[in-house]
Design brief:
By secondary structure, the protein is of the alpha/beta class. It contains 14 helices and 14 strands. The strands form 3 sheets. The protein has a 10-stranded mixed β-sheet. Strands 1-2 form a two-stranded antiparallel ribbon. The radius of gyration is 21 Å and the shape is globular. The model is unreliable at 1-13 (pLDDT under 50). Bound molecules: iron/sulfur cluster.
């Protein structure tokens, strides 16, 4: 067992089993808090403020990661939690130069760091496509389906719809042959129209889609997807979506199905997932405050835990943060919640114990198991897939 009792700068010295930590595979950095849209289901409180992650902090962050015991051979650095394209292209050119220099200095060039952006697509133009290409940035676009469904929630502050500009961005990516995936928030209105949703993605050549079911979280305190009836409708929606895609030879691959299919095909079962494994994910806000576990918890504070923020990269190492009482309380509850999941849920091997932010938002603690979100994210897609596979081979076309 790899363990640590040394706590440079930390308050506590309890022994930690570091074999259950890392490696860091995902670093989410808030390049800016500002978003040019004002989607009504957004969980970010300060999205109207233009606060920027100063790139002078990036070498500090990278050194913290590359010299920590949690560093692995490769990681994705995602610019997210605001609209990253409200900054100039030169910001990401500079970031690339810093990343390359730091990987040489602190890891002998042996760690691969790939940059990603998750964008609302409305600002993508030829200049951005050139920027994505020269910096090898992987692109994710947030679009909820056809205009009528998308524009019901995704609007500018002046109330104008955003679908047309987002589609212009997607067409620009396609014209430049830049691959991208899509994240679509599923609301009650979308569930009424599985055919329109499917045809939208198919007809626009959008082949990789992840569904994020609208959640009750952060400043977004209610969801159109609450209740047992909505879960049943979501099951029917996914069944219909799968049937339509299967009949066409699956031109649209849904992340929810693909993750399960990959695990089944590899005959693999999860014992943990990246959202509840400490230092598998590192989240950093524009000021340099950081946390681990679920990125959506970073800016949250609560009576039970205080803040989920573990420290600031300027003065706290990742290892020191792991020895603080705050981290140990969080990790204790996360581990206890996973234990509840493992002993009580048939889906554990395909889920790994769920997502901390949803446990917290729904139950006020991380020491719990089932949530509405895990039924949407894991249980219902697995049920739909297994029912389909039990029904036998697909009908010949
Ligand atoms: S599906 Fe829900 S209850 Fe089951 S393991 Fe995952 S989070 Fe826990």
């Amino acid at each position: 067992m790899i363990s640590s009792q040394v706590a440079p700068g930390g308050a506590a010295t309890a022994e930690l089993d570091l074999s259950r930590f890392g490696p860091i595979g995902l670093v989410v950095v808030q390049s800016t808090s500002l978003c040019n849209l004002d989607c009504d289901y957004c969980y970010l409180p300060d999205r109207q403020k233009r606060r920027v992650f100063n790139l002078e902090l990036l070498p500090v962050l990278l050194q913290r990661i590359l010299e920590s015991p949690f560093c692995g051979p490769q990681l994705s650095l995602v610019w997210h939690a605001g609209e990253p394209l409200t900054l100039p292209c030169s910001y990401y050119d500079e970031a690339t130069a810093i990343i390359e220099r730091c990987v040489q200095e602190h890891a002998n060039g042996e760690v691969l760091i790939e940059q990603h952006v998750q964008t609302n697509g409305t600002l993508i133009n030829d200049e951005w496509c050139a920027c994505f290409r020269r910096n090898r940035i992987v692109v994710g676009v947030s679009i909820d389906g056809p205009a009528e469904i998308h524009d019901a929630h995704r609007r500018f502050r002046n109330g104008n719809p955003s679908h047309q500009l987002c589609m212009r961005g997607i067409e620009t990516l396609q014209r430049h042959d830049i691959p991208f995936h899509v994240i679509a928030v599923v609301t009650a209105a979308a569930m009424e129209q599985p055919e329109a949703m499917y045809r939208f993605f198919r007809d626009h050549g959008i082949s990789a889609v992840g569904f994020n079911v609208e959640e009750q979280e952060g400043v977004h305190t209610s969801s159109s997807m609450q209740g047992q009836q909505q879960e049943e409708r979501y099951r029917q929606f996914l069944q219909h979506f799968w049937q339509l895609s299967e009949a066409d030879g699956h031109p649209v691959v849904l992340r929810e199905f693909q993750q399960v299919i990959d695990l089944i095909q590899r005959n693999q079962r999860l014992n943990q997932n990246e959202l509840n494994r400490p230092y598998s994910i590192l989240s950093v806000d524009w000021q340099g405050n950081f946390s681990t576990f679920d990125p959506e918890l970073l800016s949250v504070s609560s009576e039970r835990y205080g803040s989920f923020n573990l420290g600031n990269i300027r003065d706290t190492s990742l290892l020191a943060a792991a020895h603080t009482p705050r981290f140990q309380q969080l990790w204790g509850d996360v581990a206890a919640g996973m234990q509840r999941c493992q002993s009580g849920c048939d889906y554990y091997g395909l889920c790994g114990g769920g997502m901390g932010s949803n446990k917290f938002w729904e139950h006020g603690t991380l020491d719990c198991s089932e949530t509405s979100a895990c039924r949407f994210r894991t249980q219902i897609p697995v049920q739909v897939l297994l029912e389909r596979f039990e029904a036998g081979p697909p009908p010949s076309r």
